[in-house]
Amino acid sequence: MKLQEIEDYKRLGSIKGKSLEGLKYQHTIMKREGSVVLANYVTLTDGTGCVHTAPGHGQDDYQTGLKYNMPIVSPVGATGIFTEEAGDFAGLNIYDANKTITEKLDELGLLLHMDKINHSYPHCWRCRKPVIFRATEQWFVGIDHKELRTNALDEIKKSDWIPSWGEVRLSNMIKDRPDWCISRQRSWGVPIPAFYCTQCNESLLDVKVVNHVRDMFLKHGADSWFYKETNEFLPEGTKCSKCGSIDFEKENDIFDVWFESGSSHHSVLNKRDALAFPANIYLEGSDQHRGWFQLSLLLSVAAWEKAPFKTVLTHGFVVDEHGKKMSKSLGNFVSVGDALKELGGDIVRLWTSSMEYRNEMHASPEIILKTSDPYRRIRNTFRYILGNLSGFDPENDSVEYAQMPEIDRWALYKTDELITSVTSAYESFQFHRVYHNVLNFCVVEMSSFYFDIMKDRLYTFSKSSVERRATQTVLHRINSVLVRLLAPVLVYTSEEVWNEINQDDSSVHLSEWPVINEQYTDKTLNDKWETIIKVKTDVARELEAMRAAKQIGSSLEAAVELYTEDAELFGLLKEYENDLAMIFIVSDVTISSEPLDSANNGEIFEKLSIKTSVADSNKCDRCWNYRNEVGKIEKYPTLCNRCAEVIEEVEAQT
After folding, report:
1. How far apart (Å, rounded) are the C-alpha atoms in residues 132 and 414?
2. Whether 396 and 500 share a structural domain
């Protein structure tokens, strides 16, 4: 009314659409009767709510047509020309006919208003030009034939899904999917080995014919379908089952490419003795639940009654730093080749492993470049170890576990803990856990704690002392484990490290996977040292405050006093009192049995009192610890007792 500028009208009433179901009407131009039907895909936001339906030109409309037993009218031919079903408009191009049809409506007084609107329309995904759906005869796989749907759903339950929601997603797709159209009208592809009787158009497709076509393909190639005569592909004596004719023509349609890719498991696995069916794992992007995963499953279940895979892994897609799809046309595409040239393969691989691939993965040159820092930290871990293994012969210099100081036994426990966590992460395809667990081990547990503490022992103890050899034994174990755990990710760095410690032609990639040593499993010991690490964290905070106030430079210039009313913590501190100076990297630690004046409480242990002061002893020139005896040893006046003994031993050997 608004478009026609009609203001003087009267609304007689309203009616619900469902009450119109089945109402008959006369076609405005054609001598044809139609009826009103209902469909849940018609919305209030698109169109008028009352729209035409064309069972011959769209899947939704086609299903509605079947529901209401409507004739499947398809008045548009393969070339976009109206067929005889279009009556007076037959022979016209569908777009050219628009003007003719509107003129006819106007001539008959049936055109109230005409305008142009923008609306959503089917179009080619590649060239963006409009397309028209046509109902044509096709070949289908019956999804419920011989319980294919049910059997496929059962096989889904038997498979492992990473992530787990993949099982639900594919199950829902299989439950609701229609029959699979496997034919395509294209010029080139794998031909469907079907034939049609030229007399009655009856189709011919059976095992005997398929086997004969197969033999022809083996002998002459699949392209022979397009140039050899039809009778060469048919077994001798083939007749039409309907009319008895012996004259046939070949099917021109080809298989859907998904039929080809969906059968790849057969050509890859069943045709090679070195491989086994089903595959251990299928992995692809999340879009393949609708594609390769699903159609491989249907073909395999139909042919062999089992899924073609044991495990299905789904990953997200790589997007730019803003979360947008990468495209060369948008200029947000990251060149892997450029990244490899600039950063090297291992950094790119490390970045890849750090991603939680089940989600979208943001990538840009800047993002990948940030992985240089964690790579450097891991590489420096290897450098520290290799540098301190100089002169160590694992066959002759290794220290038995029982003779090792506790801190070394703790480091072995953490190394075995890493083996367990990283192996589990690899086996469950959680590569980001490999990255984070290894980085935490290298940076936090080793570099910031164990390695830092062991510098004093490695650099100042006697070369062949039990303590120093114990640390080297641990470092050798850590190196041997870490290089193999990282080999799948840092392939080049791992090989480089491996060649440093193995003077032969072996490769880390052919070595045995590391396994835990049950002797190193001591959870009670680990619990103690986890508590000590927390105490060290509280103490380090106080030492940092001294450093910020310029009271000290090195932590070795400090002395620490501790007090706690927590009996359990007090007992632990007293047990390790002689080792705490080494652990805190200070010159002296005292555990007080009385409350301390001018002390600060810890943040982790609120009942722990910490008092720090500047060490009032003299500095040893060799180990930099502050000791009372420095200056009192006549032969070595600038050394502490420990360093004096080491130097004396060295001098005696030269």
Report:
1. 65
2. yes
Q: Rounded to an integer, what distance in angstroms lies between the CA atom of residue 56 and that of residue 72?
A: 5
Distance CA 645, CA 576 (A): 24
9 and 105 fall within a common domain: yes
Same domain, residue pair 33 and 122: yes
Tokens of 8: 């003087």
Q: How far apart, in whole angstroms, are the C-alpha atoms of residue 223 and residue 202?
A: 25
The CATH number of residue 424's host domain is 1.10.730.20
d(CA 537, CA 184) in angstroms, rounded, equals: 68
C-beta separation of 193 from 204 below 8 A = no
Mean pLDDT per 10-residue segment, the chain (654 residues): 83 87 87 87 70 86 89 88 89 91 90 84 84 88 96 97 94 94 89 95 94 95 92 93 94 93 93 92 92 95 96 89 79 78 90 90 85 95 96 95 97 98 96 97 97 96 96 98 97 95 86 96 96 97 96 96 96 96 96 93 95 95 95 94 95 87
Cα dihedral 213, 216, 222, 228 sign: negative
Cα 268 to chain centroid, rounded: 24
pLDDT tens digits along 559-611: 999 999 999 999 999 999 999 999 999 999 999 999 999 899 999 999 999 99
d(CA 381, CA 371): 16
Enumerate residues 6+ apart whose C-beta is below 8 A from 41. Answer: 60
State the residue range of the domain holding 330.
322-370
Q: Locate tokens 């995904």: which residue?
A: 125
| Number of domains into which the chain is organized | 4
Looking at the fold, whether 353 and 418 belong to one and the same domain comes out as no
Q: Copy the structure tokens of residue 173.
A: 């797709």
Rg of the chain (C-alpha set): 40
Structure tokens at 487: 């080999």
